[in-house]
Amino acid sequence: MVRRIPIQSMITIDSIKYKPVRKHGIVIPNYYVSKCGKVWNDKSKKFITPYKNYRNNKVVDKKPKCMSFSMTTEGQPYWDKGYKYKPKKNSKRLVEFRMKLHLAVIDAWRPYSDHLKTLSREQLEELAVESICVDHKDDNPENNHLDNLQYSTPLKNSNWRKQWGK
After folding, report:
1. Could you tell me which residues are beta bridge partners of residue 144?
2. How far apart, in whole angstroms, are the C-alpha atoms of residue 145 and residue 119?
3. From CA 108, how far away is CA 12, in angstroms rounded?
4. Which of 47, 83, 99, 141 is the residue whose CA sits 20 to 30 A from 77?
């Protein structure tokens, strides 16, 4: 039986406000992020130290591409939504994520759904056109029949990848 932990909508530590970290719209228990990019683990009562991501891991003396942090949570909510995260080796029910810090901050404090509400219909259509791709349902690029084509997003398109040509 999964124990549900109530999620607070906001916490304050040293007069700094923190909101829950979310990934794919799912709140991750015990992880909170501030507007200035500090990440708090409420279970361990410690700040998480983010690490630098580089465009090329072999060249670490260049500017970092972004900052990331790791966290562990229950995998079931993600598996229920169809995400293919692998369980940790030492626990079948837990998954470990790496998350980009800037995505955690903006998703907690200015969610994408709120941003969409500020856009006009023309701006929404422009965003859709810039973000959409066409997927071959059977993953065969030579089969361009209309019944085999569907609009998709790059993320969904990659999740539906099949082994073509095998």
Report:
1. none
2. 34
3. 14
4. 47
Token pair, residue 153, equals: 């997003």
| pLDDT 10s digits, 1-15 | 333 445 568 899 999
Which residues, in sequence order, are bridge partners of residue 20? 32
* Percent helix / strand / coil, the chain, rounded to 5: 25, 30, 45
Q: Beta partners for 135?
A: 150
Handedness of CA 64, 69, 75, 81 (dihedral sign): negative
- In degrees rounded to 5, what are phi and psi of residue 36? -90, 5
Q: Bin 118: left if φ > 0, else alpha if -120 < ψ < 50, else beta.
A: alpha
- Note the pLDDT tens digit of each residue in 103-116: 999 999 998 888 99
Question: Is 21:33 a contact under the CB 8 Å cutoff?
Answer: yes
CA atoms of 78 and 64, how far apart (whole Å): 29
Closest listed residue to residue 30, CA positions, set 91, 74, 89, 66: 74
Instruction: Give the DSSP letter string of 2-42.
Output: PPPPPPPS-EEETTEEEEEEEETTEEEEEEEEETTS-EEET
